[in-house]
Design brief:
Layout (H helix, E strand, L loop, with lengths): L13 E8 L5 E11 L6 E11 L10 E6 L9 E8 L3
Parallel strand pairs: 3-5
Antiparallel strand pairs: 1-2, 1-4, 2-3, 4-5
């Protein structure tokens, strides 16, 4: 059993994406694009996914590049939270 003083391992997923909507209170929509190889043809294809992320300060704008981390369910659709802003939109 792990020692009570040692921190538990953090297997939570992290993703980087671009804010596509910031019109809700404390919630932003982040589009995450992954490059994957096609199973049969081997060609690299882009797959994108929209994630609903929690952001308490509410100072994000559309176009900001952010890092999100998986968290417990916060609402019907929200399972991510913004950990840090990588780049602000110009």
């Amino acid at each position: 059993m792990a020692d009570a003083a040692s921190p538990r391992p953090n297997p939570r997923k992290t993703r980087e994406g671009i804010v596509t909507s910031a019109s809700m209170e404390k919630t932003v929509v982040v589009e995450v694009t992954d490059r994957v190889r096609h199973a049969r043809y081997g060609k690299t294809v882009q797959r994108s996914k929209k994630l609903y992320a929690h952001h308490e300060p509410g100072d994000l704008k559309v176009g900001d590049r952010v890092r999100v981390q998986e968290t417990r369910p916060l609402s019907k659709l929200k399972r991510w939270r913004v950990t840090d802003v990588i780049e602000r939109a110009r």
